[in-house]
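ok here's the first one, seq then struct tokens
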Amino acid sequence: MNLKEDKLKRGNRRHYFFLNPYKDAAFTKCPKCLSKTLLRKFPLVIHIKPRQVLILNKKCRYCARCDLIIARKPEVESLMAAICEDKNPEIIGNNYLIMGTLGKRDWRARDSFADDVEIIERMYIFKGMWDFELARRGWYPAKK
């Protein structure tokens, strides 16, 4: 069985994802299960409008129990701007979508891909995109 058949059997989906918009929250604990998160590098596949695919190998927080990747939005946007500044400056500030991740083997072979379609065929789409809101600090009445 080759790699493509293996991905099709698994449904080509991996991980849950949360793009952390909060500057003061690092999420060292998982917001869902409260276990400690680890730092891991993930090759994130990002679609920037119009028709631009970018692979960003970035350190993210990861909860193994929930299979959740947490990436900080300001860091992702600054890295995207730095990369696009040389190659394609007119797309800086455009809307984007972080679609999934690449396997490590595919990330190492990214220069040999013929086009963006091949990257999209090889990527693992996120199982789901989660959103968390921070509770404000302070005193709250006891729950009834």
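and now the second one, same deal
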Amino acid sequence: MSSGAILDSLRQAILDGAPETARDAARQALESGLDPASALDLACVPAMHTVGERFACHELYLPDMMASSEAMKAALSVLEPELLRRGTRRQSLGKVVLGTVQGDIHEIGKSLVAIMLAANGFEVVDLGTGVTSEDFAARARELQADLVGVSALLTTTMARQREIVAAFDAAGLRPRVKIIVGGAPVTRKWSEEIGADGYGKDAAAAVALARELLGR
């Protein structure tokens, strides 16, 4: 099979949300002599970009996006170790810290944002769920984050996003560190009200916003 056909197979496996096929295609790419960075940049990233666009246009739904994310992770499990073995690194578009606020255990949306950002070349550190304002600020400082994504899926936990923005202001981390917010009850108006730098209504929008805020 030609290199082009292998890349097409890898791209389609991610679009189809087929992890095993994506893993096999990634292995084939390496066995054929393709550079792992090229496989990522020419197949994986474009596929996830297409998934994000289709999701934003309501051509795909949450289960479809989750399936594609799993396929992307399967491909990365093959390609990333080879990148490390060769001592090469993908060019980073910036370091992003993500988390769901204290008192909230929802993480599906946040995890999708993490996958989409990583697929598009951002370094992502996912703090998980139930993250306090202090932890957000401390980890952002420790990791020298460029951007922080704060998720809240409950109307009762939205106020934590305001607390986190205030904590970053008090710690002197802004305006260098940008803060974006998201979650089912979150709106652009709320983002503006609490002083965040932006609002991502879904994973695709969060990637576009991250690029815009960081000038990428």
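notes on #2: The chain has nine helices and five strands. Residues 23 and 75 are 5 Å apart (CA to CA).
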